[in-house]
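Two folds, back to back.
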Amino acid sequence: MRSPTVLFAVLLLCAAPSGQTASPAQPAPVAAARPEAPLVELAGATIVTPAAMTVQERTAVRVLVEEIEKRTTVRLPVASQWPADTAAVIAVGPVATAAAWASPGLRGAAASQAPGREGYRLAVIVAARRAPTVLVLGADARGVLFGVGRLLRELHMTRGSLTVRPDLALVSTPKVALRGHQLGYRPKTNAYDAWDVAMWEQYIRDLAIFGTNAIELMPPRTDDDPDSPHFPLPQIDMMIQMSRIAEEYGLDVWVWYPAMDPDYGDPKQVEAAVAEWSAVLSKLPRVNAVFVPGGDPGHTQPKHLMALLERQTASLHKSHPAAEMWMSPQGFTKPWMDEFYAILKTNPAWLSGIVFGPQVRDSLPVLRAGVPQRYRIRRYPDITHSIRSQYPVQGWDVAHALTSQREQINPRPEAEAVIFRALLPYASDFITYSEGANDDVNKFVWSGLGWDPTVEVVEILRDYSRYFIGERYTDSFAQGLLALENNWKGPLASNASVDVTLQEFQAMERRAAPRDLHNWRFQQALYRAYYDAYVKRRLLHETEIENRALDRLRGLRPGESRRALTEAAAILDEERAKPAPEWRQRVYTLAEALFQTIRQQLSVERYGAIAVGRGATLDSLETPLNNSGWLRPRFAEAAALDKEEDRLAAIDRVLRWTDPGPGGYYDDLGNPALEPHLVTGLPFAEDPQRFKSTLDGFGYRPDWRLSWMTHAESFWETPLRMRYADLDPSAHYRLRVMYAGDVFSMNTQIRLVADDTYEIHPPTRKPSPVQPLEFDVPAEATRDGVLTLTFTGPAGIGSAGRGLQVAEVWLMRKD
């Protein structure tokens, strides 16, 4: 595939001005490109530091030495004395004392503004008759670490060679104060529970190199099992080690600590909880803050929860005097939210801040308005889940949802940037919600935007690709990550970019060295590229099979219904012969490779994943992508009928399932291509969490139609609306509705009203098993040729606010 640049060049060569003939013998003059200055070689450099350094500053120097050696085999010496002018120097240390320990390197350095908190100054100084000097000067210990990280990202590193461009000169300070990620060592994650101490240190180091300044840990008791077959250490021991690592790197340590006991109104239970938390937190070398979610898990009335946290804060300060206490109103009902706001108005002194996370029923602007300004708000964005989450993938094809499910490897750089920027005016601090290595790219996008919210996402990806994959992959791998996000946009069957994406990654794969192929980040991207392409091939294959099976029934002759049903069922069985077996095999091979490199658990049976919906996407790879699970029982039921006319009627019902009849309308809600009457609300960039808008949802049963597995939904009290125009004012209409949804929301009661006036049905529980409901539409509602349908769920609910989920709607003329 030619790039746009190449195509443009070809057009330039082929085009000629009107009335003239292009002459290749007389090309237009081209200005000579100014030669770039040669790169500065640092393979023989000495790293110079102050004689006295903090633990965190020494760690930064160790990071520089070790990461250079990994990529070049060159181990640079470290000294506190400046070498002779003939030896190149990388000077690393605090800017405040640079005049005392780095004065030779400052000669010839241009004056520059001082970096702010956690910032750094980088400069390459090349002077006549002196060896080059690279300055890495931090505003503080973290600034030294982040300056080292930036230098590592700027260096050109190959085996035996270490160079840098001579014009490197910058001062950089982060714009967002808190930039962190949750790293939960617990059984529920899709990889973390198998990581040993060395793997955790490397990952924390990787995040720090890109400007992360906080990690969030989890205690031994959560809503998970107490043990995992993958644990290399007990949870408390690993928690201590991760806190120690963060202390050495100078990163903040947060602890996500759910309050899960049933009754914190009981003083005995409060005492037990205070003792339990103290026993855990006092063992950690570093704790900067504790974050207690109001729900998911836990469900405690605010007055009892806040009283508990006041006690926990006093206890926490015995071992960590400066540690802060934060909490979130996750899962609160409307009355509980009102109680929560009332308590905040009393300005409790023990509380440091509020967290906006999943299942908070008020949007961030509303929350900010209701929380006193003395309290900071921290964001807790879900970057790890693709469905049933705070920020699900919008417009996701049902084939992707069926196979990739909730925790697929999910680079979503453009979407994450939209989410980050949309709410930045209301809260900038963040620690992301992660449940495994599947969201690795998203973490670095958030860290990059946290450092500089104006940076282009593609530049973050280029940095990521260059540093983690290799310099020759800087552009190709970055574009590949963007392409993987595009694979998930629009109908999969017509998404041509899926095939192009695989071709691009296959080209990288063919050129890759063994070391590249062993790189887990490279393996993850390859896995997704092959996975998506294989799923698309299966979708086309199985859709064609279903169409042939239904065509067999459409073309049956009188008296052969049973034979046609048998033959149609046999056609459906052809889906067992899978297409593209080489792609399928590559997916399985890469799954094994990822288990070997980072213990990513992509299968329950093979790799000990906790569940299919928890990242075990290998187990859902073969999920049927057509309606065969619903059609086979219908075929069998029809064939069992005694009379031919009854069998024909049953077949006709199957064939005409989506047919609304003459003058009618059909909407398959949750399928963006087939929901023309759905009022979707605001654009994603204005309402990424869909507080005021509808979103696409997904639920699964193997015997459901695909149209039941997708649905439109809205959260909490936001209504779901449909609007029909150009109806016949003289006609009478009947409405058929299919309420489906996810497994957690089937008990929800839904009310339906026409034109905000006429009740079509009162609050009604979704039928189980699912079946269509039919109602007459009052003639008065359509007399003006326009009809608005408004679906509402119960008011004041808590938890995730889900349940208002509608799968299919038919508006049919009765006459």
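---
second:
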Amino acid sequence: MDTLFRDIRYSLRLLLKQPGFTTLAIICLALGIGASTAIFSVVNGVLLRPLPFPGAGQLVAAGGRDVTGQRKTVRSSSPPDFVDFRTQAKSAEFAAYYNITYSYRGADVPERVAAAVVSSNLFHVLGVSPMLGRGFLAEEELPKRDREVVLGYDFWKQQFSGDRRAIGKTLRLDATDYVIVGVMPAGFAFPIQAEASRFWTPMTLAGDSTFEQDRGDHYISVVGRMKPGFTVKQVDAELRAISDRLRELHPSMNANFFGGALPLSEQLTGDARPALLVLAGAVCFLLLIACANVANLMLSRVTLRAKEMAVRTALGAARRRIVRQLLTESVILALAGGALGILLASWGKDFLLSTSPMAVPRAAEVSIDWVVVTFTTVVCVLTGVLFGLAPAMQIVRADLNSTLKEAGRSITGPGSARRMRNGLVAAEIALSLMLLAGAGLLSGSLLRLEGVDPGFQSKDVFTARLRIPELKYKSNLQQADFYDALVDRVRAIPGVTSAAAVTVLPLSGNNMMLGMNIEGETRPRPTDFVHVAQFDAVTPDYFRTMEIPLKAGRVFTSHDDSAATPVVIINEALVKTFFPGQNPLGKKIAVAFNEGPMREIVGVVGDIRRSTLSSPPEPTAYTPERQTTMPTMVLVARTAGSNAAFAGAFRRELSALDPDQSASTVRRLDDVIADSLAPRRFTVSLLAIFAVVALSLSAVGVFGVMTSMVTQRSREIAVRVALGARPRDVFSLVLSHGLTLAAIGVGAGLVGAFALSRVLTGLLFGIGATDPFTLATAALLLGAVALIACYLPARRATRLDPITVLKDE
């Protein structure tokens, strides 16, 4: 230990005497370690840390399995299917939930508040009990009961100032009074999402004669806790068997429902996982580049200290003692870089979360905790050993006699140190090329996505999502009257040219799939549905407001109400899929949650991108809003230019129509489309930043190697000049050496880019993972940077005075 402390003191003194070298090395390491720590803190909080529930490893997500195997997630279920899961499964206890927003009138102005509707046993399945009061009772799942609510801790503190007497009081939600029966403990959040639920209300799951009709309506999520002795595979197999029986019992509504289960942690992070893993891989490359740079600096420094090391060896110092001294210096440098890196990571982590457009699950759990600090410490030590090992090995291999004769000019004899430095620079260039290629491919993919025609005109269109309470607007007629009245009021706002309402806004992340039948086709049973299509209920001016072109027939009018003949408008994708080569006008189809009327096709409209810009248009059917009423709809309004006053005017009209109602944020449709691309744009931006930093570090590495080469070969260059070499010959000598290193690095980088192409394939659109133009552009850019980095050392070499150099020798 005494020897170690002496090594540390000596290393600190030596590093402080060389502030330029020390500062540059620490900055290089801080960039690599800081970036890796910031990304790891997010990966740890989102992917690695156990869920904040007792026995979190026993929690599973259940529902519809993706039979294509393209995504490791489960889809939503219907309430009747969930009840069957809960009553028939022996391997786990299941609970259900779905997200919702309530119109809450706390003060004078109603606001929409995030909440969740849950089965009575959800808190029990999660293993968390209310801090005050109780959870929900099984009988509270029955219809025509009192309305109950359990508050979140923060909401209770905010609205009731932490008053324990809040239990038994009422909360007015959607113009209906709910009795407060419990308060959850601080820190409890479920569902785990970007916008946490402020409170929970019970789900109606039994006792209603119409309950079974909801079997085709998949909108609830299912979570389960495995019973002792069971595994996820066993739960998955049991749910598959149950869903097989349900398809036989209810073929009209369960034809495409295949049950399955997976760990809840995987379900929650399924969408964020690919991007985070790509970023984690990118920062690993960045850290390796930083290590290579510092290793080059250390090699250069050891070369200058060669005589010192030789003298110490001649005086009796063991080589392992000198190696330990050098490794101590490198580890101290790494720890100093790590300390600065943690500061950068703390800022970088907050920056990542605040600027991330993704609904990062478990974002509140991301922190620089002891796990992250331990990770950083281990990375620092390994990094120190990694970049300190190369110069230490040169000391071990050095020839004592030649080193003392050469006065420290070279300790490598055959030039192994120079070859090692050249190899490190080539590796830096290769890794930088791989980062540049990845960023270029994702950027090209993003540009192609931004150029995709969504099938409608989004400019100057405002949107607002509403959900009116079914307890207040009980009949379909009342709901339809509300939306028609609101559309009329919005249409009268100055600057509004047209307005309409639709159940699902394109590119909003929501979809509605319904069963579909074509008149005259054979079905196993009259009530069976044999096809599936996307569905929307719209008001008459929807296609004009969105500027979706009419291809054939007519659009809806105000006469298409509940008393008129049931009609439907389909898109071109549905025509191509189910009516190839036919004129669909006048034919009839049925589209409904359950058995519905045959509807006459009266029009065909153009295709739009509903789910994502990267997904092809899907078969879609549109019905008149007055023939298929929905309590939740999205208002769309086209204005004459950018109307900044629209949001305020809309809220005034909504309040005038119903003071208890409030809408979600009024947004431009352009912003909705931009948000659909935001996760990709965010990943591309971070990769581009990492690539630029890697490119800069590579340029520094090339410059350092070439400068060192000029210094170490100054005697050779002086002799060449004395024998008649021209300045351009010297310039060409130095430049060709640097460009040779760049060519080797670019070649290795292209091989690495091809090898990693499969990693990016699933993230690309409209561009191949080995796109020649992108790879060639990245290679040329790196070559140009290497040329610039070589220019200054080559120019310096041409200005060496041979008389002065040879005299010094």
